[in-house]
Design brief:
There is one protein chain. The chain has two domains: about 5-195, 3-Layer(aba) Sandwich (Rossmann fold); about 200-280, Orthogonal Bundle (Helicase, Ruva Protein, domain 3), CATH 1.10.8.100. It is built from 14 helices and nine strands. It has helices spanning about 5-10, 20-30, 50-55, 65-75, 75-80, 90-95, 115-125, 140-145, 155-165, 200-210, 215-220, 225-235, 250-260, 265-280; strands at about 20, 40, 60-65, 85-90, 105-110, 130-140, 165-175, 180, 185-195. The strands form two sheets. The protein has a seven-stranded mixed sheet with strand order 4-3-2-5-6-9-7, sandwiched between helices. Strands 1-8 form a two-stranded antiparallel sheet. The structure holds S-adenosylmethionine. S-adenosylmethionine binds near residues 16, 18, 68, 93 and 116. One of its GO terms (cellular component) is cytosol.
Length: about 280
């Protein structure tokens, strides 16, 4: 396929910003975990990163854009023929609906489409076959995943990342390294997993805990859980009531969740009870 104008060819809908820098392609290859597991690449695009990956590993790539699938099928004819490269066309998120992305252990390596980058990383945390995630994302997203407790950027994503392993922001990549350039600075993020974790209730709990990041953690939790239970749990865990969400470490979030989770709807029940009481009062009962 001959592309006369890459910037015009790129589809915004599919988050296409092609990495056109040999230097950063090599930096990504060097940051990869040092073993011979298969690599799953999401969004191979024109195949620049894929070319480097197939030199070292067996690769399965997932691409949604039919134009690019055609291009990759002819570009990678030989590795497809000798079995070192497999291309699966379609939406990668749909592939994940039926379980693991691959039926063998793998490392995820990708220059991700930014509109679904966080979603993809969270899917990889849940996937038991995924051993690590090495991805190009918006710098802001990488910072959130890699932040440590106490840092201002420590967020629900940091808690989830440190629950499954260790997240490292490897390096930043300037906009000019891509065609077309994205609106934001990018960064390569590595998450080395030591376990998988799949608990949607915990994710919902973290959303509540970080709902107002600059407010007190206890106040955020009181929007969904009974006040007395939050106060009692803070006292038992010897946590200061003034603690802000970014100041509590990952293990504190797991402790708080274990104490509070069965009351996730307790606050709603309280509201319901108060409402019934005031209605009864109004009726003069
Ligand atoms: C940021 S580009 C990266 C392209 C190439 N890997 C590179 O580094 O130049 C993102 C790629 O993800 C693909 N993509 C977007 N949404 C996708 C989805 N839901 N499933 C699979 N691939 C997707 C795009 O078509 C595009 O090829």
């Amino acid at each position: 396929m001959i592309i006369e104008n890459l910037a015009e060819f790129a589809s915004k809908k599919f988050g296409q910003n092609f990495l056109k820098s040999d230097y950063y392609l090599q930096q990504i290859i060097q940051a990869m975990p040092n073993d011979c597991l298969r690599v799953a690449e999401i969004g191979p695009g024109l195949g620049d990163l894929t070319k480097e990956l197939v030199k070292a590993r067996n690769v399965t790539a997932f691409e949604v854009d039919k134009r690019l699938c055609e291009h990759l099928t002819s570009e990678f004819e030989e590795p497809i023929h000798n079995g070192s490269f497999e291309l699966r066309c379609g939406d990668v998120l749909e592939r994940w609906e039926s379980g693991s992305l691959l039926d063998e252990p793998y490392h995820l390596v990708a220059n991700l489409p930014y509109y679904i980058a966080t979603n993809i990383i969270l899917k990889a945390f849940k996937d038991e076959h995924c051993r690590s995630v090495l991805v190009m994302v918006q710098k802001e997203v990488a910072v959130k995943f890699a932040a440590e407790a106490g840092e201002k950027a420590f967020s629900a994503l940091s808690v989830l990342a440190s629950t499954v392993g260790k997240a490292t922001l490897c390096f930043e990549v300037e906009r000019e390294a891509f065609v077309p350039p994205p609106n934001v600075t990018s960064a390569v993020l590595l998450i080395e997993k030591n376990r998988s974790f799949d608990d949607e209730k915990f994710e919902a709990f973290l959303k509540i805990a970080f709902s107002q990041p600059r407010k007190k953690l206890s106040k955020n939790l009181m929007t969904a859980f009974p006040k007395d239970l939050v106060e009692k749990t803070f006292a038992e865990l010897e946590l200061p009531s003034t603690m802000r969400p970014h100041e509590a470490g990952t293990s504190i979030y797991h402790h708080l969740y274990n104490e509070l989770k069965d009351n996730l709807d307790g606050k709603q029940q309280n509201k319901q009870r108060k409402l019934s009481k005031s209605r009864a009062k109004n009726r003069g009962q």
